[in-house]
Amino acid sequence: MEIVWIVLLLGAGVIIYNHMYRKKMYREIDRLEAWKIELMNRPVPDELAKVKQLNMTGETEQLFERWRQQWDEIVAVKLPNVEEQLFDTETFLDKYRYRQARKLIGQIEDGLRRLEEEVHQIIDEVNELIGSEEQSRTEIEELRAVHREAKKTLLAYRYTFGAAADLLDVRLTEAEKQFESFAKLTEAGNYLAARGVVQELKQELDSLATMMEEIPALLSECQTSLPAQLAELADGYREMEQSGYILDHLHIERTLAEKQEKIGQCLAMIGELRIEEAKQTVAELKEEIDTLYDLLEKEVLANQYVQTEMPRIGGMLTELAAEAKETSAEAMFVQQSYHLPPSDLEKYRSIEKQMHQLQKRFLLIEDRVAEAKTAYSLLREELEQLVGQIDMMKEEHEQFRLMLQALRKDELIAREKLDDMRKKLSESLRLVQKSRLPGLPEPYALELTEAKNSLQNVAARLEEKPLDMPAVDRALEEAKVSVERLYERTVEMIEQASLAERAIQYGNRYRRRYPAVHKGLEEAEFLFRHYDYEEALRQAVATIESVEPGAFDRVQKLWQADNEDEQ
Questions:
Q1: In this predicted structure, what is the pLDDT of residue 73?
Q2: Where are the Cytoplasmic topological domains?
Q3: pTM of the prediction?
């Protein structure tokens, strides 16, 4: 019974699905049918009727016939074929041949899409033809006005265009032929070709208008402004030469002739209507002329610099020489008291050598200024280099002088350090005396002797003449290590001795009961009396810990408490 119900449910499901699927497919057929009807009702005939208002000859007639044939084929052949395919689709559905129906629907949709594109193309091309005719008719009248205005300007102001006027006249005359060509193409119905003529004519007249606007200014530059600047440069050059300036290195006369030739080339470019080249050439000429002005101005400024700075630089050298002489005397005095490393002496000899070279170089420059055979700009460069070297040498000299002063300062610092280390050594001895130790271990006594000797070595170094500060510094470093190590060893030794003594006293309570403790403490006392405090502490701790674990911690706490009370 359950199987029967399952079969019935599956059958019902299949029937429902089949019904819904067929309904969906019929909706697709209805959509495609509506699309087909919408294409058939497109206003293509109305658009084609607009074309008939134009001259139906030549290119227009050919285009009209092509569009008409395309539309007739769509209406009479292609759309009826779509209708037949839709009918076949319905037949497949009625026979439940869903796969064939679905495939055919896809083909119909692709076909309608292609027809849609074809219809759009026809309408767009028609609109382009009609629009181009209307736009061309409007623009050609505007271009006629532009052309008339250009001819009037050329006629009225022909003199402002120089040699370019004839070629401008030729170009404007050729433009008139373009108007005639446009009229013939329009009359023949070749509206698209006529549109191309309009665009070419517009580009040509725009170009001519731009040229006619720029040529007068360019001619003014080449015929008036630039030649005037070259003449001014030539006059300025001659005046400066008469005033004693050396300008041979600038080659001004040859450069001015080259600029004059370049102006002639620019005028030729304008006459040939090579306006962009002419504009670039004028810009280059302006930049080159500005450079010439800058070069002459540079010589004037260099002359002012040389005249004003020469005395100041001479004073700088004199002052530096006097300072170097004082430093030389100071260095000789310092050498009697301090040992100067070879590198420092070599540095000072280098300063003296550079000083002589700078003085010699300055005298040579003075001679060249007096001879008046060298350009001021070159003299200025040399003086500026000289000033830079003087500044560098002043810095080196100052560093050397500060080094000499630092030697005495370093000596005082070294003596202060020696005093500090002596105090630290005395503090170590005071701690030993205060601790009332029975004696000093031999290693400690050796360290004490070593520390004293290191301090004596520093003192001896400080008394040497000349004083060798690097050697003093090395001796100071050795003494510092020795004294600090002794101080640390002193504190450690006193602590060990005090703890050993406390541990022995603490362990005395176990002497009678534990023979081993008695023996161990006797060994610790023996070591203590023989100044081996470290080993005595170790022996005492091991002994008391054997009978009372943790005893040493209590001894340490008692010892620390006593120390705090004493402080």
A1: 67
A2: 22-567
A3: 0.49
